[in-house]
Amino acid sequence: MKPRILILPGRFSSGPDHWQTRWELEHPSFRRVSQRDWQTPDRAEWVATLQSAITESTAPAMLVAHSLACSLVAHWAGAHRGPVSGALLVAPSDVDAVDFPAGTTGFAPMPLLRLPFPSIAVTSTDDPYNSVARAAHYASAWGSRLEIVGPLGHINSGSGLGSWPQGFAFLQHLMTGAGA
User: Fold this and answer.
1) What is the pLDDT of residue 123?
2) Distance between CA 112 and CA 84 in Å, rounded?
3) d(CA 166, CA 77)
4) N or C end of the chain: smaller count of CB under 10 Å?
5) Distance between CA atoms of 169 and 164, rounded to whole angstroms?
C-alpha cells in the first residue's frame, strides 16, 4: 500500500517559498497537517492533531517534519502507535537549548527514544537552531540515518532551496525502504 505523505511544518508553518509548500503544490496527494496555533505551539495539542491525522486512515503515513515538528514526531512516537511507515526529520530544533525561542509549551525535553519506524534526520552545518553534534545525538537516539547537507542554514525558505531535490531524494529512499 502506497504511504500517505503528511507534511508537518514547524512553528509559524511553512510559507510559500518553503520546500514543504512546494512539495505540496507539486504533489497534490501530499497533505499538510494544519495546527490550530502556529504562533505559540502546545505539544499536547500538536500531538493530538498529528494522532488524528495519522489514524484517519489505515493507509500508512510517511511523515515529513521540519524544525519543531521533528520534536513533535518524537513526542508522538513516545506516546502513540499508528500506521506510520517512516519519517523525514529535517532541521530538528534543539528544544533543550537555553536560547531556544520562547513561545512553545511542552516540547522540551527532546524525547530520545528509538523511533518505531525508519527515519532520516537531516541537518546543515550552520543551522542557527541546532548544532551538528546535537542533531547527531538526536539521530543516534532515534535510530535515524543522519544526513549532513552542508551550509544550508535552517533548511527553510531562507535557504533558497526551491523544491529541494536533495530532500526529495531522501524521502524517496524512505519510501522504497532504503532509509533504515
Assistant:
1) 98
2) 18
3) 26
4) N
5) 9
- Cα–Cα nearest to 155, from 18, 5, 26, 24: 18
**Which pLDDT belongs to residue 179?**
46
Average of per-residue pLDDT across 76-83:
95
Q: Which three cell numbers stand for residue 28?
A: 497534490
Q: Which of these, 132, 121, 131, 105, lies nearest to 44 by C-alpha position?
A: 105
Residues 6+ apart with CB under 8 A from 146: 120, 121, 122, 123, 135, 136, 139, 140
Q: If we measure between CA atoms, which residue out of 73, 85, 53 comes closest to residue 141?
A: 73
Round to whole Å and give the CA distance between 71 and 25: 25
pLDDT recorded at residue 3: 86
Q: Which amino acid belongs to residue 23?
A: W
